[in-house]
From TrEMBL:
The keyword Hydrolase does not apply. Keywords: Cell projection, Cilium, Flagellum. Gene3D superfamilies: FlaG-like (3.30.160.170). It comes from Conexibacter arvalis. This is Flagellar protein FlaG. Residues 1-29 are annotated as: Disordered.
């Protein structure tokens, strides 16, 4: 499983740096579990806190890009553990961050 973060909003990120993504899987019909859900319960837009979180993620992404870095999230095939890697824009591994330290990185705003 790979959780690479895709670009959010306009960016100067060159498509030449992207690794090819796997072919999309065909969509399968999803069975309806609850018949009492209607379109009336879906809001017109996401809640404010979701929009704020998306904005914060976009700013963090842009800050990483300005530093020439990106984060890659994946699951180790053998252990099933989450791995977080800091890479340069050419895909070279700079360092690995233990999942327990990711919150520290996010709250201090730095990888150093």
């Amino acid at each position: 499983m790979n959780l690479d973060v895709a670009p959010v909003g306009p960016t100067s990120y060159s498509p030449a740096h992207r690794t090819p993504s796997p072919a999309p899987r065909p969509l399968q019909p999803v069975p309806v579990v609850r018949a009492d859900i209607s379109g009336d319960t879906i809001p017109d837009s996401p809640p404010r806190e979701v929009l704020d979180a998306m904005d914060a993620a976009s700013r963090a992404y842009q800050q990483l890009r300005a530093q020439g870095r990106e984060l890659r999230f994946s699951q180790d095939a053998d252990s099933g553990r989450l791995t977080i890697e800091v890479r340069d824009l050419d895909g070279n591994l700079l360092r690995r961050i233990p999942p327990s330290k990711l919150l520290d990185v996010a709250t201090t705003g730095g990888l150093d």
